Amino acid sequence: MSIPKMSDAPRLAGKRAIIYAASGAIGKAIALAFASEGAKVFLTGRNLAKVRQVAEEIAAFGGDAQAAEVDALDSQAVEHHFSTVVTSAGRVDISFNAISIPQEGIQSIALAELSVDSFMRPLTHYFQSQFITTRSAARHMVIQKSGVILMHTPEPARLGAPLVGGMGPAWAAIEGLSRALSAEVAAHGVRAVCLRTTGIPETGTIELVFGLHAKAYGMTREQFQALMESRTHRQRSTTLQELAQVAAFVASDQAAAMTGTVVNLTGGAIVD
User: Fold this and answer.
1) Which burial class, exposed, middle or buried, applies to 261 when counting CB atoms under 10 A from its CB (0-12, 13-18, 19+)?
2) What is the residue extent of each domain of the chain?
3) What CATH number does the domain located at 16-200+239-265 have?
4) How many Cβ atoms sit within 10 Å of the Cβ of residue 104?
5) CA-CA to 267 of 20 to 30 Å: which in 10, 78, 145, 199?
6) Structure confidence by residue, pLDDT tens digits, 69-79
7) pLDDT digits (tens, 9 = 90+) for 241-271
8) Per-residue pLDDT tens for 121-131?
9) Strand partners, 265
C-alpha cells in the first residue's frame, strides 16, 4: 500500500482516532487512511520504535500522528492511554484494534489434534484484547455521546472453514461482540461496526497462514492462495487499500446510519 496524500475533501477532518497495533500491516494501512482523511491519529503498539516509524510516515505527507507504547492486552495501560488522549485531545472519535497473534501451532491443525491451550489462545489473547480496547472506548464514548468502534474479521468468522483452530470461533465472537455492543451503546450516539474481508496476502500474517495451510494440503503457498481466491466472485483477495478506504468511510459521519452490522468486503466469498 502506497503512502496516501491528504484528501482534498477529508471525511475525517477534526476526528481523533486511536489505533492499536498500529505498526502491523493492517494497523498501518488504517492509520494512513485515517490521517489522509484528516483525522489526528494516536498510534499504539508494544514496539514504540516501529510505531514511531508509522507516525513519521504520516507526518511526511502532512498528517497528524502521535505514537505511544501500549500493550493492548493490558487493560490498565489501555485505559490510562485512552484517558490521557481524552484529556489532551478533548475526545476520541474512533477506536480500532489491529492486534494479531502468532499462528504457528494454531492453524493448519485439525481440531481433534489441537491442544486445549492452542485452541483457547485466540480467545485468551486475540479476543480478550479486542474486548479490553472496546470496553475502554465504550466507557468514554458513551459519556461524550458520540464515537465509532471498528473491528475487523476475515471470512471464517461466518464460514465453517477447516484447520483454523480457535481463530474461527474467536472471529465469530468478535462479530458477536460488535452486535451486542451496538445494542447497548447506539442509543448513546456510539456506533459499532465490523469489517469482514478475505485473508489479505499483503500482510505477513496471511503470508504465513497460507503457507501453513498449503503444507497441510500438500500444495504450494501460491496454489493455496489461488484456491482461496477462486472461491470469490472477483477471483482475488481483499486488498489493504480496499479495507482502509472502507474503514475511513464507515468511521465518517457519512455512514452515520451504520451500526450493529458487518460490512462485507469478501468480494463474494460470502454472499449476504
Assistant:
1) middle
2) 16-200+239-265
3) 3.40.50.720
4) 11
5) 10
6) 999 999 999 99
7) 999 999 999 999 999 999 999 999 999 999 9
8) 999 999 999 99
9) 197
